[in-house]
Amino acid sequence: MKFLFLGGDKRYRYLMKDLSNEHNIFCVGFNNLSFDADILNINEVDLNLFDVILLPISGINDNMEIKTEIRKY
């Protein structure tokens, strides 16, 4: 599978490293990785080429909830 990580923090580096053993990892906003991953510029990303796209989350609050916005289009 092809995973695309669009930003994130140290937690995402650990996840990318674990996934890189069995999957193709692509990322935007990272550098100096110690594992096999393709670092892309946001201008060269075609979202249709990836099986999974991960975006950064702000964290989990005391109620184990992740802050999100729900919008209807």
Q: What does the model show?
A:
It is a single chain. The protein is an alpha/beta fold. Helix content is 14%, strand content 22%. It has one helix and four strands; from the N terminus they run E-H-E-E-E. The chain has one helix at 10-19, and strands spanning 2-6, 24-28, 38-40, 52-54. It has a four-stranded parallel sheet, covered by helices on one side.
Reported for the largest beta sheet, the result is: 4 strands, parallel
Give the strand tally: 4
Compressed to H and E, one letter per element, the order equals EHEEE
Low-confidence stretches: none
Strand order of the largest sheet: 3-2-1-4
Average pLDDT over all residues: 88
N- to C-terminal separation? Answer: 30 Å
Principal-axes shape call: globular
Total number of helices: 1
Helix and strand content put the structural class at alpha/beta
Q: What does the radius of gyration come to?
A: 14 Å
Helicity range:
10-25%
Quick structural overview:
It is built from one helix and four strands.
Kindly list the characteristics that best describe this protein:
73 residues, alpha/beta, 4-stranded parallel β-sheet, 14% helix
Fold blueprint:
Layout: E1 2-6, H1 10-19, E2 24-28, E3 38-40, E4 52-54
